[in-house]
Write a structure and sequence with these properties.
about 30% strand; Rossmann fold; single chain; binds 5'-O-(N-(L-cysteinyl)-sulfamoyl)adenosine; globular; 2 domains; BirA Bifunctional Protein, domain 2; nine-stranded mixed β-sheet; 13 helices; about 425 residues
C-alpha cells in the first residue's frame, strides 16, 4: 500500500479525552474514530490490526476442534425470558422494539441463542461434545465506557460454547479452551496469566480469567513469579489427549485478581509474589445446566434416558486486545507492534521522492516486497524526513526500510527494527531477506 493513497489520518496532538496510552496512540495513529461514547469506527490501520488478531483467535479455536458459526447481533427477548436473564441483566442490556412492537435486544452475549440452536438440532449424546464459536459485535451499555476500545459499549468478542453429556465431559471441553487461550495470547506476543475468577452475570462454579500484565490494567493482580518463565508455545497440544497435566501445571501456581486475593491466606512467599496490574482479555466459565435446564436442552443419553446437557462459555475480547497489546507494547515514540499482529510488517520510507535513483531503488523494493507477499506500507509522500520517521514510529510497524539518495547511489538502505530501535545499513537485497525472516 502506498501511503500517498492510504487513509491514515495521523496526528501530533495528544487527544485530551484519552486517559490511557493505548487510547491516545490509537487516536493519534488514525486507527479509530469515536462515533459516540464507547462506540468506534475502525479506520484502515486499526481494522487491519483487528483482523490480524481475529485470525489468530480463529486459528486457535479451529485447532482446538471448535466450529465457527455466526449468530445475529439482534436477538428476540423471548429467548432471554426463557432463561430468566431478561429481567436480571439490567440496564446494561440495550432493549429495542421492532415495528410490530416485539421486544428485541442487541446481544451482550449469546448463551441463550446458541442453546436454542443446539436444542433444535442435537438429540443424541452420540453427537457430543459440540464446541461452537462466533466472532461477533456485542453491545453492553456500560455505565462508564472508557479507555477507548478497552471498555467500550459496542465491542467485538469471540464467544464459544461447549455442550457435553456430563460434568466430566464439560471439564474436558473447559480444558481445551484453557489451553487454546494460553496459545492464542502467546502467539500475539502477550503473557496472559489464568486466574481464578468470579463468574458474575454469566453464572457458574468454575471460571478463569486471563489477565495480561500492563501498568494501566483495571484490576490489581497477584501471581507467582514463575509464571513469567512458562511458554505455552513450547509444545503443540493434542486436543484429543488428556489435557489435565498441562492445565494442572498452570493452575498449580498461585494467581488471583484483587477481588479473590487475601494477603493473609496467600501461599506465595513475598519474594516470589509478583504484584502488578492486569487487563482481562479472556474469560472462561463452566456453568453446568444453568441455561440448558430452563431452556430444555437435553439429549438421549447412553441409557436411553434424557439428560440435560452441561455447558460452558468462553470469551475473548477481540477489540479490547488491540488496546491491550498497545498497552503492553509501546514506547515514547508510539506503538511497537508484535510481529504477529502488526497491521503491516514493513514500513518502506522513500526519503526523497522525485530523485531518480532513490525512486528506482525504493520502487523496486516495494514491488519485491509485494511479490514476496510481505505486507508493506510504502511512504512515497512528498514530506520532510522528520515527519516520515515520526509517523512510522508512531504507527509502530516491526521493520522500517529507509531509502535515501546517499545509499541509493550504491544500492544500500538502512533497516531499523522498531522494537529496540537497532539500525543497520546493508544492500537492498539483504534488507529484503532480513524482513522476510
Ligand atoms: N458469555 C461469556 C463468555 S463467551 C462472556 O460474555 N464473558 S465476559 O463477559 O467475560 O466477556 C468476555 C470478554 O470480552 C472479556 O474477557 C473481555 O476481554 C471482553 N469484554 C467484556 N466487556 C467488554 C467491554 N465493555 N469492552 C471491550 N471488551 C469487553
Amino acid at each position: 500500500m502506498r501511503l500517498s493513497q492510504y487513509f491514515l489520518p495521523t496526528s501530533k496532538e495528544t487527544p485530551s479525552e484519552a486517559q490511557i496510552v493505548s487510547h491516545r496512540l490509537m487516536l493519534r495513529a488514525g486507527m479509530i474514530r469515536q462515533s459516540s461514547a464507547g462506540i468506534y469506527s475502525w479506520l484502515p490501520l486499526g481494522f487491519r490490526a483487528l483482523k490480524k488478531i481475529e485470525s489468530i483467535v480463529r486459528e486457535e479455536e479451529d485447532a482446538a476442534g471448535c466450529q465457527e458459526v455466526l449468530m445475529p447481533t439482534i436477538q428476540p427477548a423471548e429467548l432471554w425470558k426463557q432463561s430468566g436473564r431478561y429481567d436480571d441483566y439490567g440496564a446494561e442490556m440495550l432493549r429495542i422494539k421492532d415495528r410490530h412492537d416485539r421486544d428485541m435486544l442487541y446481544g451482550p452475549t449469546n448463551e441463550e441463542q446458541i442453546t436454542e440452536i443446539f436444542k433444535a438440532h442435537i438429540r443424541s449424546y452420540k453427537h457430543l461434545p459440540k464446541l461452537l464459536y462466533h466472532i461477533q459485535w456485542k453491545f453492553r451499555d456500560e455505565v462508564r465506557p472508557r479507555f477507548g476500545v478497552m471498555r467500550g459499549r459496542e465491542f467485538l468478542m469471540k464467544d464459544a460454547y461447549s455442550f457435553d453429556l456430563d460434568y466430566d465431559g464439560a471439564v474436558r471441553s473447559y480444558r481445551k479452551f484453557f489451553v487454546a487461550y494460553l496459545r492464542t495470547f502467546a502467539r500475539m506476543g502477550l503473557k496472559a496469566i489464568p486466574m481464578q475468577a468470579e463468574s458474575g452475570p454469566i453464572g457458574g462454579d468454575m471460571s478463569h480469567e486471563f489477565q495480561i500484565l500492563a501498568d494501566t490494567g483495571e484490576s490489581k493482580v497477584f501471581c507467582h513469579k514463575d509464571f513469567l518463565k512458562f511458554d505455552p508455545l513450547q509444545t503443540d497440544p493434542d486436543y484429543n489427549a488428556d489435557l489435565k497435566p498441562l492445565v494442572n501445571r498452570w493452575t498449580s501456581l498461585y494467581a488471583a485478581a484483587d477481588d479473590k486475593h487475601d494477603p493473609k491466606k496467600c501461599p506465595v512467599p513475598a519474594d516470589q509474589l509478583l504484584e502488578a496490574r492486569g487487563i482481562e482479555v479472556g474469560h472462561i466459565f463452566y456453568f453446568g445446566t444453568k441455561y440448558s435446564q430452563p431452556m430444555g436442552a437435553q439429549v438421549d443419553g447412553p441409557d436411553g434416558k434424557p439428560a440435560i446437557v452441561h455447558m460452558g462459555s468462553y470469551g475473548i475480547g477481540v477489540s479490547r486486545l488491540v488496546g491491550a497489546i498497545i498497552e503492553a507494547s509501546h514506547d515514547d515514540s508510539g506503538i511497537v507492534w508484535p510481529d504477529a499482529v502488526a497491521p503491516f510488517r514493513v514500513g518502506l520510507i522513500n526519503l526523497k521522492p522525485g530523485d531518480t535513483k532513490t525512486d528506482a531503488l525504493a520502487n523496486d523494493l516495494y514491488v519485491k516486497l509485494l511479490q514476496a507477499k510481505i505486507d508493506v506500507l510504502y511512504d512515497d509522500r512528498d514530506e520532510r524526513a522528520g515527519a516520515k520517521f515520526a509517523d512510522m514510529d508512531l504507527i509502530g510497524l516491526p521493520w522500517q526500510i529507509v531509502v535515501g539518495p546517499r545509499g541509493a547511489a550504491t544500492g544500500s538502505v538502512e533497516i531499523k527494527r522498531r522494537k529496540g530501535g537497532e539500525r543497520q545499513e546493508m544492500p537492498a537485497d539483504k534488507a529484503l531477506a532480513r524482513v522476510a525472516g
